[in-house]
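Translate structure to sequence.
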């Protein structure tokens, strides 16, 4: 089979053997995958990554222990937990210290003709949700995680800093919850003017601007994943007693529910699409300024 391979900043297409399916896993054929900022950061050296990236996907199950899964159109949560440690027993498998992460940490990603994932990670895509919308399930789930972590009331005013792929989904998720979302792209708001601020710029500079925007005893939610160290105005955060919440992956069920109900619009977020074997060009396109989601088709 062919698969995308990242190493030393290069994106290549390589021939690789079919993956072996462990017990409890499904063998999945890729239908469509999405390139996200994390994939671009992996190319730049995040986690010292080398191998097959990709974690946003729609696929079809071609082999599983339970034959009822075969032929199902699926998406999949990306963290593979051990299921035995204290964190897993507490329902926090996404933070299992022994976990692997699809296409990021010690588990080959989905930018390949075939890949594997545990059955327990899979979710069946509702029939009324097309592939090009379902491929956004993982970032929509990441946006939904904000509301799992922080109790923002309906009608709450939220500042959103950053309006790329994830930022636009965050805006829709918060709006569907009933929040009043103010998006900041280049302009800077008054100092300390929002109780809730979501930082999704994907830049090191965004953190300090977000701190400035947050009112005393307000909450700042960080969604950016940036490779390398980020300088922070810790004094401002301490003096203003700001709560800083790191926010990563989310549950897929709320995301699929929003898609099923038509609450999230994704069509305008697709900037380009390429066949899998043109992944190097697709990564170049995805890294261009102003480009939103780039899809890979098999």
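Result:
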């Amino acid at each position: 089979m062919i698969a995308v391979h990242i190493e030393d900043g290069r994106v290549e297409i390589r021939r690789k053997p079919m993956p072996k399916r462990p017990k409890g896993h499904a063998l999945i054929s890729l239908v469509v995958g999405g390139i996200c900022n994390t994939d671009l950061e992996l190319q730049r050296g995040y986690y010292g990554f080398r191998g097959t990236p990709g974690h946003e996907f729609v696929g079809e199950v071609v082999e599983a222990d339970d034959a009822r899964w075969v032929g199902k159109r699926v998406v999949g949560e990306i963290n593979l937990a051990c299921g035995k440690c204290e964190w897993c027993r507490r329902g926090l498998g996404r933070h299992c210290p022994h976990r692997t992460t699809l296409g990021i940490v010690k588990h080959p990603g989905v930018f390949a003709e075939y890949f594997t994932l545990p059955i327990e990670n899979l979710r069946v895509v509702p029939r009324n949700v097309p592939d090009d919308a379902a491929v956004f399930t993982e970032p929509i789930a990441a946006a939904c995680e904000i509301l799992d972590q922080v109790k923002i009331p309906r009608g709450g005013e939220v500042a959103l800093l950053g309006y790329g792929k994830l930022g636009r989904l965050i805006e829709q998720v918060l709006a569907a919850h009933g929040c009043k979302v103010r998006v900041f792209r280049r302009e800077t708001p008054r100092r300390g003017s929002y109780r809730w601020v979501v930082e999704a710029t994907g830049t090191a500079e965004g953190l300090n601007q977000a701190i400035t925007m947050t009112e005393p005893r307000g909450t700042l939610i960080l969604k950016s994943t940036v490779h390398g160290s980020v300088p922070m105005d810790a004094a401002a955060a301490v003096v203003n007693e700001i709560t800083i919440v790191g926010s990563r992956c989310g549950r897929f069920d709320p995301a699929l529910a929003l898609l099923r109900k038509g609450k999230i619009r994704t069509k305008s977020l697709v900037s380009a699409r390429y066949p899998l074997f043109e992944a190097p060009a697709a990564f170049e396109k995805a890294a261009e300024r102003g480009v939103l989601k780039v899809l890979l088709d098999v």
